[in-house]
Amino acid sequence: MQYTLKxxxxxxxxxxxxxxxxxxxxxxxxxxxxxxxxxPGGGALTQHIYDIPTKDFKAIExxxxxxxxxxxxxxxxxxxxxxxxxxxxxxxxxxxxxVVGNFPYNISTQIVFKVLDWxxxxxxxxxxxxKEVAERIAAKPNSKAYGILSVLTQAFYxxxxxxxxxxxxxxxxxxxxxGVIQMKRKANFPTMLSEKSFYHIVKMAFGQRRKMLxxxxxxxxxxxxxxxxxxxxxxxxxxxxxxxxxxxxxxIAST
Length: 255
Prior knowledge:
- By secondary structure, the protein is an alpha/beta fold.
- The chain has helices at residues 17-28, 46-49, 64-73, 108-117, 131-138, 148-154, 195-206, 240-253, and strands at 13-14, 34-38, 56-61, 81-83, 98-102, 124-130, 157-165, 170-171, 178-185.
- The chain is elongated and about 65 Å long.
């Protein structure tokens, strides 16, 4: 049984077993109660991880053709495959679960934000991204790659860039390098007024990332507050802790 690749779904399938084994080794270092693979495609990674000892394994795949191929090739996956859109699905387990996948590049950042929504149930995510996206997630303050994705992710997860993956590891080969990262949930989240205010202030700050913060954040703070030296910095200079602390001052300005 064969399958076709669909560019519209951002499909670049792994063919290098050594990469799959490295991802499995990273998974085996974690405590895994339940495991969810996002975008199994043709099963290159799936065949290495579905039998990792857990209470349950599930894989979600939007492409019905790939689901049928997987069931035909790996009958033991019967009852473990979900033919649906990951971005639209409800939480698949009642308890904590680890997320893993060679993520479709066209929705990879949306996958991260979905995991952030589920952070109380997802202690670990190990995923493959376009290298530029992986570097943005892992970037530190005062770097060009540091941005909204970096701050919002690192507020709740410790991010480790694990390794590069060259284009020739895929079919068809993408035009860019890929990278695998690990996100491990923090034991303690930063104190903030609310996640909504935190997300809002970060997005507003990076909306004008080359300007001093007093410009993009002016609507949310008093003139006296804007005299604080922190507002002479640029968005990329602040840590996630800095942004979390600002949510409380932002509240004062709005009352």
